[in-house]
Amino acid sequence: MINAFDARATNAVAPRERALIERRQKLLGPAYRLFYANPVHFVRGEGVWLYDPDGNAYLDVYNNVASVGHCHPHVVAALSRQAATLNTHTRYINDVILDYAEKLLGYFPPALSQVMFTCTGSEANDLAYRVARSHTGGSGFIVTQLAYHGVTAVISEMSPSLGAGVTPGPNIRTIPAPDQFRAGGADVGQAFAAAVRDAAADLRAHGIQPAALLVDTIFSSDGVFAEPAGFLAPAVAAIREAGGLFIADEVQPGFGRTGASMWGFQRHGIEPDLVTMGKPMGNGHPIAAMVARPEILQGFGDRTRYFNTFGGNPVSCAVGQAVLEVIEGEGLVSNARDTGAYLQAGLRQLALRHEAIGDVRGAGLFIGVELVRDRASRAPDGATTAKLVNGLRERRVLISASGPHANVLKIRPPLVFGREHADRFLDALDATLREVA
């Protein structure tokens, strides 16, 4: 697993944390994973900082879940206020869910005009799976080779990044991610569309009607692929020609992170049939959603009784509303654009000094840095990446990695990340690269 603690190697772990790890293993079982060779113990968060029990501050360059910053006071106040007023489910009439739905849908193209709320991105993708099957009559789904879309039984089979222990279902086809760095000058959009057509043809050859293409629009688990803007359009056309829908998983790239607009799909000039969201929409509070074209949702609603006890509860919706207010009020989409461009420029300057940096790519405050053994062969260097991730942790900077070879630094800090934080990260990265070279 990428950036995982090995419970058999605890020599570097302090006694206090070692005792907590032993307690955790006893109580939570073996399936959970901790980050870093020397796991980090946190007790408090604020903005772009996380604090350990001794008061040491760690710069968070990774946790997109706290999208508007850890413990943002406006979000905390909205949560507390609504929790003290009312919290129930969607089978009673309440204006909080409607106010939030109107505000959220206002960020989407007019054709995407209905929303269903869940608690997690996994649930949202599971719901999109059901809606796509209901609308198309098909059961075949196409995902990328190292995708992550969630942990329900069905969606885990569409999440190859979970590892060899979770095998794709017989109705799932995986295709290569649109990797421009290794494309050799080929048109990644056309190549990706061709892979979709081939996968759809293979599904039909096995008697399976394609239902949907499901992609994370920044391809975060595959290694972060954002360029060139627009490359997704041919693939969307290809799945629709095959009778399927396009589902945009915006759990990670959504809510302004890519810097150009609210949603990753907008960079590609396309309109999905279904859009799923999660994690960042509640700044860590468990709220998620699926947005749909009403003509697609109609048949599902006519035939299916759907109920989610906590999805869309008033507290969650008040939190979601507060997150949108912070994104607007603090100009966080433009901050993602400007700080992201500044950070990418700084990373490219580092690449002039460090041969290990093979590629810098991304959009806004979602950036991938691919590490290689040498630039001529572009051979992936997962070993150096692991040393770098753990070396940064020792400098109190939090980062992780992705990609099929675990050699791409995944940079996605809270959206309140500023230039001063970027400078601190760049200095730490420079020093750690020199150390592990």
TrEMBL record:
Keywords: Aminotransferase, Pyridoxal phosphate, Transferase. It holds the Pfam family Aminotran_3. One of its GO terms (molecular function) is transaminase activity. SUPFAM superfamilies: PLP-dependent transferases. Its cofactor is pyridoxal 5'-phosphate. It comes from the Bacteria. The keyword Lyase does not apply. The keyword Transferase applies. Belongs to the class-III pyridoxal-phosphate-dependent aminotransferase family. PANTHER family: ALANINE--GLYOXYLATE AMINOTRANSFERASE 2-LIKE, PTHR45688. This is Aspartate aminotransferase family protein.
